[in-house]
Fold Pyrroloquinoline-quinone synthase.
Amino acid sequence: MNRPIASEPLSPEALEAALRAVGPERYHDLHPFHDLLHGGKLTKGQVQAWALNRYVYQAAIPRKDASLMGRCDDRELRREWLHRITDHDGFGEDKGGVERWLILTDGLGLDRDYVVSQEGALPATKFAVEAYVHFVREKPLLEAVASSLTELFAPSIHRQRIAGMLANYDFIDERVVAYFRRRLDQAPKDADFALDYVKRNARTVAEQKGALAALTFKTEVLWAQLDALHHAYVCGAIPPGAFRPE
Ligand SMILES: O=C(O)c1cc(C(=O)O)c2c(n1)C(=O)C(=O)c1cc(C(=O)O)[nH]c1-2
């Protein structure tokens, strides 16, 4: 639950504490699908399904960041936000995070064109991811920034994933987990900047409630994707047209 905000705005420190408290209650590291994934309990086909669906999220991140920049009058914020797009799409020699994700799906034996086409992704994955892009495009800028704050909680799940998947699956190697190693450096810088921005700019009770609600919304975007994976690939209710492991 979000901490209730009374009639007085929180201090920046108390707001930070309230934002950080969302993670232990709602972040997707708590989802049972992640226990299965990191604990080596999935078949290769189920891991393929996760990677192929998660590609939809990866591919949308630079679009949502471009949306955010497209509506931002603050040059300093744009300067700081810009590298998020190149982190994923690449710049010059660096082919970027989307390419590293495709190295992961290549390593799992998935056909690149099929992954990139997103044809085999679950309906709920597409809806959840697109809801995030729309949220960032349409909500107040402060809430758009706050919705990225799940990244405060990402390094710990990336560390768990690297260690768990390397230890538990013979089809996972360093090349496949390179995406997550890179995020260990990138995510904390992004999250620190976004947190500082939210603390400086969420001054009224309404703005602080909006920031907390944005972060909660984002945890739901992530949770819904894992619910869909669990339903389809653990419970076995694969929707028509979605990827079917061999
Ligand atoms: O593997 C994960 O659990 C995870 C979570 C998140 C997140 O919390 O949104 C991101 C990422 N990874 C990630 O790799 C990434 O590039 C990323 C960007 C964003 C964002 O909202 O801008 N979240 C995340």
Notes: Residues 41 and 213 are 33 Å apart (CA to CA).
